Amino acid sequence: MPKVLAVFSILLIIALSLPLVATETDVSGDWELSVQTRRGEITWSVHFDQDGQSLTVTMIGPRGNETTGEGTINDSQIEWTITRSTPRGEMTITYKGEVKGQIMSGEVQFGNFGSRQWKATKK
Prior knowledge:
Number of strands: 8
CATH superfamily: Quinohemoprotein amine dehydrogenase alpha subunit, domain 2
Structural class: mainly beta
Oligomer: single chain
Shape: elongated
Radius of gyration: 21 Å
């Protein structure tokens, strides 16, 4: 019995000393993102390439225009930034949100022109 207790104690010490493995949220793939604007709902196709916590983002707008950006994911918190050329110059657009399974949502900041809520579902 003392040997069994000693072995159990050693295994318990080893198990407790191992770092906890965090479950990484994987957003790789295609998503459909929508934003409600003053002109109505706008929908983008979004593709995420994920390497650990780093993201490369490709967004295709309703008119087929493509924009790329970079971002991060940390646990369930996601953030990415893209820059679009507009008639008034370049505008940095920042998306921040939370991923819950096959759905993510949050707030998008349109440069200095305000913010809106967004929601995306995995295709």
